[in-house]
Design goal:
With 394 residues, this protein is of the alpha/beta class. The protein folds into 2 domains: 4-239, Ribonuclease Z/Hydroxyacylglutathione hydrolase-like (Metallo-beta-lactamase, Chain A, 4-Layer Sandwich); 248-386, 3-Layer(aba) Sandwich (Rossmann fold). The chain is built from 12 helices and 23 strands. It has helices at residues 57-66, 82-85, 88-94, 104-114, 181-196, 200-211, 229-240, 258-272, 287-294, 313-325, 344-351, 371-390, and strands at residues 4-7, 10-12, 15-17, 22-23, 27-28, 33-35, 38-41, 46-49, 74-76, 99-102, 121-123, 129-131, 136-141, 151-155, 160-164, 217-220, 245-252, 276-281, 297-307, 310-311, 331-338, 358-359, 363-366. The strands form 5 sheets. It has a 7-stranded mixed beta sheet with strand order 1-2-7-8-9-10-11. MU-OXO-diiron (FEO) binds at residues 79, 81, 83-84, 146, 165, 221-222.
Length: 394
Amino acid sequence: MVSREITKGIFWVGALDFNRRLFDALIPLPDGTSYNAYLIKGSEKTALIDTVDPAKEFELVSNLLKLGVERIDYVVVNHAEQDHSGSLPMILEFYPNAVIVTNEKCKEFLIALLQLPPERFRIIKNKETLSLGDRTLEFYITPWTHWPETQITYLKEDQILFSCDLFGFHMASSDLFVTDEAASYRSAKKYYAEIMMPFRTSIKGHLETVKTLPLKLIAPSHGPIHRNPQLILDAYSDWTSDAVKNEVVIPYISMHGSTEKMVEHLTNALIARGITVKPFNLNVTDIGELALALVDTATVVVATPTVLFGPHPQVVYATYLANVLKPKVRFASVIGSFGWGGKTVDTIVKMLDHVKVEVLEPVMVKGQPDEATLKQLDRLADDILKKHTEIKIV
Ligand code: FEO
């Protein structure tokens, strides 16, 4: 990997990970990812903004050595998660004068996760500044832009925001800056769904702070740098808003075809009513695509056969995930089939305790869906249309 100069005296020194396919042992990474670290040379001091995943620590050190960096005064840590902090021990060893600059909560995390020596820290408070000579760093503590200790760093003179996870996206690209805005938008929306959506309310507040800063660039810690900050800021305003779309997401599993027939019928009934439908067969779907669809859908209909006494385990997994991602979905229902009873509907509805949804009357059938069942599905489609109309999205 090679370092790249962003503007005079400011360098990308991170690592690209083209082959990584899973993050946090959970999130699919179809396009790999990057761990962006940045070097800022001031007239008096030099700062490194974040490090990289420990699997890439030699690339970070090699980038710094190739640039001839003999001294680092400050290592700013915006976030303690190991994909950004994991190479700190090696950096501290290579640069024995380097001081870790971060907030108090992040220090606690770093000591717990990496056993770093407390005497190497300098603690900053919200809006505190740090001079590098002719350049000034300003810190904003932004809890829950992933973890509770997260912060962002603003380089005042150059008007660059180093936003760490916030505004990032998982894409390993040899481009330093965003070039394909459409592809980046989609990737950033998926990343928002997977990483940021549970903290929508907090992020909404931090967004107002970010909007007060004059910005030429937003340099996140994953993916290429935003040269058009307004685009990603507008996208975040949209995603974090309370507005939902005239859409229905249907995560489903079918064992012997009954539930699939119901999904097909409901899908067609909703299309006929002018509603966008996104069915996801959980046997083949990428869970990231399901998360993406949840960002602004108004309704979710969970479709499942009954296995023994309740929903299919894959449906349980998807419902659990959808619940903890806390989308702004407004309505939910359950459809599916059973052989001899069970508590499928109750189990699913009870799992939706993190989302504030109105539950529309479920449709469950013993065995194959008959004419009466298909009529009930039409009634559910009518109910959904009525609800979407009431909240004025149709
Ligand atoms: Fe990219 Fe929350 O770590």
